[in-house]
UniProtKB/TrEMBL annotation:
Pfam families xref list: Fic
Domain Fido: 39-183
Lineage of origin: Bacteria, Pseudomonadati, Pseudomonadota, Gammaproteobacteria, Cellvibrionales
PROSITE patterns: FIDO
Name of the molecule in the record: Fido domain-containing protein
Organism (species): marine gamma proteobacterium HTCC2143
Length: 275
């Protein structure tokens, strides 16, 4: 079932077939991270610890896994905890050093290399989805705040495993893997466009205010104007402030404090109506 995080992120609790995993909890942890701070191997372990009560530890055993794309074939993955820790650190260092390369190349390639390492005994696919969502958001693909990345993944799961198998082989080209993610991200934008049309939000006058109002009404917890600015980098801060004040005047939201540090929340009457 789809749920929403405090940052207005809609998501599907992938892993519903395994009740040991708490995908929303891990996602909530991600929303509390500073987008300006690079991820570390320790952060990745913390995400996994939120994903599963017994998580947070690098895989300590070698694995032989059945191939999902080919019958009666297995994939052997050799690693130990120390080796995995070093490999993940090196991967993240390489990723963050590629400052001149388009994120639509580096983000999927980061995910591919992580799956090659297969750092945890279980939950690696979920970690990949969380990582993809987070890094797309960091690189200004705000669409993942509103459109369910996980449901699009589940709808194209066969393609995911097929391209993962193709591109995990030694010396294989990463193009099929990149193409898979480019198509999936395009699907996110197409869904977002359909939702805007369904909500009758056009490019005409007042459309930006409508977008801001829609974002604010989706917030489950208090937020700051900077959160709205991060969601809509192409809308000026002045217009965002005017939209928030307009909603305040209509008694839809209220503020605690003043200026940029003010914390906004829905008025009690509005909150009661929505529950």
């Amino acid at each position: 079932m789809a749920t929403k995080s405090s940052a207005g992120i809609t998501h599907n609790s992938t892993g519903s077939r395994n009740t040991g995993f708490d995908y929303p909890k891990a996602l909530q942890f991600l929303t509390e991270l500073d987008l300006k701070e690079p991820l570390t191997s320790k952060t990745l372990q913390q995400i996994h610890a939120h994903l599963h009560p017994q998580g947070g530890h690098w895989r300590s055993v070698n694995l032989t896994l059945p191939r999902r794309d080919l019958v009666n074939e297995e994939l052997k993955i050799l690693h130990g905890q120390k080796t995995i820790s070093i490999a993940v650190e090196q991967l993240l260092h390489l990723y963050y050093s590629q400052t001149t390369v388009d994120p639509l190349l580096t983000v999927p390639l980061l995910a591919l290399e992580l799956m090659r390492i297969f750092p945890f005994l279980d939950g690696n696919r979920r970690i990949l989805l969380l990582l993809m969502r987070y890094q797309l958001l960091v690189n200004d693909h705000q669409v993942v705040r509103y459109i369910d990345l996980e449901s699009e993944f589940l709808a194209t799961e066969r393609g995911f495993y097929r391209t993962l198998s193709q591109c995990s082989r030694e010396g294989a080209s990463p193009v099929p893997w990149l193409s898979y993610w480019w198509v999936l991200i395009r699907r996110l934008y197409k869904r977002f466009d359909r939702q805007l049309k369904h909500a009758s939000i056009t490019a005409g006058r007042g459309s930006k205010t409508a977008l801001i109002q829609r974002f604010v009404t989706q917030q489950g917890k208090p937020f700051r104007s900077t959160d709205v600015c991060a969601a809509f980098p192409t809308i000026s801060r002045d217009q965002i402030r005017l939209a928030l004040r307009g909603m305040r005047d209509k008694k839809l939201i209220e503020a605690r404090g003043k200026g940029p540090a003010a914390v906004w929340q829905k008025c009690p009457a509005v909150e009661a109506t929505n529950t």
